Structure to design on (325 residues):
């Protein structure tokens, strides 16, 4: 109910309250009703994943739109409703060798729906009878950061006896993107600044057989000063003594206790340093690494922290040391 800004008689106020409580047509009692629809989802793509499925993806709505869900339409018919955190879906049960058009609408908390935006089109390939042989894994994968929130990923083509129809990109074991059979690269967006990611690519054929993972590629997005403190451990040091290396660092400011770190030696992950409940260091952390490597061995060391969302953060500065006997 809006604040009263001018004196009113008690009877008028009581009448207004009664009207608010009992008039069935009033839903917000003096409040402004939200009738502004969200923007139409952008970046809509559709890729045939098999003879009977199409993978549909779109860009996440801006927070200001207040989107609570999405509706996916196939040739004008509603086929999926998804929560706001989902921005892709496999539409299944399709007919081989058939062209389809897909549109997506956003919905906000007030029930307003966006316009559908331009349609994305895909044609399913021909079905292959009794095909149980998966494609080979893509033999090589490369990646590079393109700013704090995007990564450019490329892969080598896979082979299949009936032909590859799609490439699926996985991050942390979860499929996050599907590319067409003729594509060998893609740009992944909506990532977190200052965060380490690991991606793999699988090939898929027209019978939905998936290859094993191709080689994993690790990419760390750069920090974004506008997003606050970085995720890399700070002031990383490595002091050498006979048979030991004493490590020290400052925990990143993530808003939560950081209890898990991953140590790399010569660009290879060698151990995970974990601090148990009640033993998580505040500010400065330390760890003693023991080694039986011969004196004179040269190592390069770096460290990264496990973030509250489960991903690995950015690496610390790298330290080069020579082991002592």
């Amino acid at each position: 109910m809006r604040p009263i800004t001018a004196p009113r008689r008690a009877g008028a106020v009581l009448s207004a309250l009664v009207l608010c409580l009992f008039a069935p047509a009033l839903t917000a009692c003096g409040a402004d009703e939200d009738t502004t629809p969200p923007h139409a989802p952008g970046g809509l793509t559709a890729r045939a994943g098999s003879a009977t499925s199409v993978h549909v993806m779109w860009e996440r709505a801006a927070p200001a739109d207040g989107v609570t869900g999405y509706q996916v339409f196939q040739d004008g018919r509603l086929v999926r409703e998804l929560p706001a955190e989902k921005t892709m879906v496999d539409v299944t049960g399709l007919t081989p060798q058939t062209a389809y058009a897909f549109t997506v609408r956003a919905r906000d908390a007030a029930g307003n729906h966006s316009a559908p935006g331009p349609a994305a089109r895909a044609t399913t390939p021909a079905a292959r009878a009794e095909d149980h042989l998966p494609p080979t894994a893509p033999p090589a994968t490369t990646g590079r950061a393109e700013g704090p929130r995007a990564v450019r990923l490329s892969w080598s083509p896979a082979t299949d006896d009936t032909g590859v129809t799609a490439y699926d990109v996985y991050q942390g074991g979860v499929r996050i993107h599907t590319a067409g059979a003729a594509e060998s690269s893609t740009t992944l967006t909506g990532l977190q600044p200052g965060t380490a990611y690991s991606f793999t690519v699988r090939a898929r054929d027209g019978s939905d057989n998936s290859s094993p993972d191709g080689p994993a590629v690790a990419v760390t997005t750069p920090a974004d000063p506008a997003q606050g403190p970085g995720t890399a451990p700070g002031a990383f040091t490595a002091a050498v003594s006979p048979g030991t290396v004493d490590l020290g660092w400052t925990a990143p400011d993530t808003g939560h206790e950081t209890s898990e770190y991953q140590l790399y030696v010569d660009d290879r992950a060698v151990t995970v340093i974990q601090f148990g409940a009640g033993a998580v260091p505040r500010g400065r952390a330390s760890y003693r690494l023991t080694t039986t490597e011969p004196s004179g061995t040269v190592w390069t060391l770096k460290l990264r922290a496990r973030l509250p969302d489960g991903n690995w953060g950015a690496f610390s500065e790298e330290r080069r040391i020579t082991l002592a006997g």
Notes: The first strand starts at residue 45 and ends at 50.
